[in-house]
Amino acid sequence: MALILNNKFLTFFTLFLSGILSSYSLPPYNNYFINFFTFPLFFYILVNNRNKNFFNNFLLGCFFGFGYFLSNLYWISNSLKFDENFENLIILSILLIPFLLSIFYGLFSCLIKFFNIKMDFSSILIFSLTLAIFEYLRGTIFGGFPWNLIAFSTTDFISSIQILSLVGTYSLNLLVITFYCLPIIILFKLSII
Fold first, then answer.
1. Contact 31, 24 (CB under 8 A)
2. Which end of the chain has a smaller Cβ tally under 10 Å, C or N?
3. pLDDT tens by residue, 118-155
4. What gap in Å lies between CA 180 and CA 79, rounded to an integer?
């Protein structure tokens, strides 16, 4: 892990790859268990980069977000193949939309720097709440883009999503992000205090 944290290229590539892997937790793949590794890794890298500058944190979030959205929004480009007039927009839809959406993750990573997160349970809650707020903003600002929320990885479990009628989609998103981040306590021998 020290090799990844000490090499900027490897850090960014790891986050980009983690974002891609996280997208496989969404339908139709529904490999939700992937998030038990990718979100703790994202959290761990953000904690270990908290002493770097804001632009570095911004890029960390952008790389994770770009990988996440690049790999799960490919279908938008498929819808542009039916009319020849829109074929020039295929490359834009493949790269520009994920890039714009990854800015939310970049801003999230910058904001998380203000909280001075550490390897403890309260920082996991701060991480989860802040990411859930930015997911909400992504779904509402500028007309919104509420697709591919992290909570959608639980759609395979009908009984677990019954909570939606009580808390709503974005609150479930907060609970799911927190749930996915909890293994960091075991993986890195954290204290809950």
1. yes
2. C
3. 888 899 999 999 999 999 999 999 778 888 999 999 88
4. 32
Q: Which tokens in the block code for residue 79?
A: 């819808």
CA 66 to chain centre: 9
Tokens of 80: 């542009």
Contact 71, 22 (CB under 8 A): no
DSSP conformation letters of the chain: -HHHHH-HHHHHHHHHHHHHHHHTTSTTT--GGGHHHHHHHHHHHHHHTTTS-HHHHHHHHHHHHHHHHHHH-THHHHHGGGSGGGGGGHHHHHHHHHHHHHHHHHHHHHHHHHTT--SBHHHHHHHHHHHHHHHHHHHHGGG---TT-GGGGGTT-TTGGGGHHHH-HHHHHHHHHHHHHTHHHHHTT-B--
